[in-house]
């Protein structure tokens, strides 16, 4: 599973904690039949773990480049930071967005906001589904919060581009539409994966993220 | 009485240069015309079987020779532009493995500079349309291209795919570029 590691100070470099793979809040098989255990295991223990490891490596190199004042190296490392950092951020959110006790509809303030900003829950669900299905290539569909305008907003991001880092929207609910998120079970039929995932959305988590935004 | 051979122009096959195959020439007289000195039976077999077989086999051999020449040219270009085949293979593998997200690794031809070039494209961006390079060999690294078999281990898929590259096809695409 995961382990917290503190890296001892290396000479003049500040000591820092490496990023670690967060534990999954439920068993690999807990989201079946909607998302298979095989997918969950590969997705968490291989894909997310790789983003974590590669982020740590990239940060280590970036730290050296900063120390040396090597701007060229810094710039050349930025794609790796964006990709692996985004991957770590996105998946960390994603695991909490899902739950074996999920599904149904949200309540309270989040539901009110959804109705206000999308007309109805059905409208919102249809729109986020369409945006997620429509991502060309690898990416994510997102429900985000636009703090400036005080409203919910749906967006898509390519690859592992983190929502907040690239759009400013605060991530509430992410739908991973990289093929590794569904292919073993749904093959090329991404819409079937989308239909299924609504059964395991953890509305408590999405609601508490929303509540946090508005503080 | 039979007039035999037919001249065939082989329609250009995509990138292969059009060329006339060799054909069996007509006999200028009937099979029996040289009797009693050379029998009709001999003339028929000699012309329609023996000579015909030389024509067919020559065409086959020339085709293979042309392919070998083409492969040779591509190999020369690879050595010239990448140092060695191993270097080229390593580079295209690294570029393909390194694609972030969905995309393709490509061996392309840079017509302006007259050299081979390796490139990656995102999603389904076509190589020529977006970079001007002429596509010779593409490696699909969208997850759907390998996930069911290799799961997240894209490098294993890359290792395997080298076993099924059609070098004849790549060579003939290269030959076509240089016309």
From TrEMBL, chain A:
Domain Manganese/iron superoxide dismutase N-terminal: 18-99
InterPro entries attached to this UniProt entry: Fe/Mn_Superoxide_Dismutase, Mn/Fe_SOD, Mn/Fe_SOD_BS, Mn/Fe_SOD_C, Mn/Fe_SOD_N, Mn/Fe_SOD_N_sf, SOD_C_sf
Catalytic activity: 2 superoxide + 2 H(+) = H2O2 + O2
Subunit details: Homotetramer.
Family of the protein in this entry: Belongs to the iron/manganese superoxide dismutase family.
SUPFAM superfamilies the record matches: Fe,Mn superoxide dismutase (SOD), C-terminal domain, Fe,Mn superoxide dismutase (SOD), N-terminal domain
Protein name: Superoxide dismutase
GO cellular component, one term: mitochondrial matrix
Family annotation (PANTHER family): SUPEROXIDE DISMUTASE 2, SUPEROXIDE DISMUTASE [MN], MITOCHONDRIAL
Keywords annotated in UniProt: Manganese, Metal-binding, Mitochondrion, Nitration, Oxidoreductase
Pfam families registered for this protein in UniProt: Sod_Fe_C (PF02777), Sod_Fe_N (PF00081)
Protein's organism: Nestor notabilis (Kea)
Cellular localisation: Mitochondrion matrix
MF terms in GO: manganese ion binding; superoxide dismutase activity
EC number: 1.15.1.1
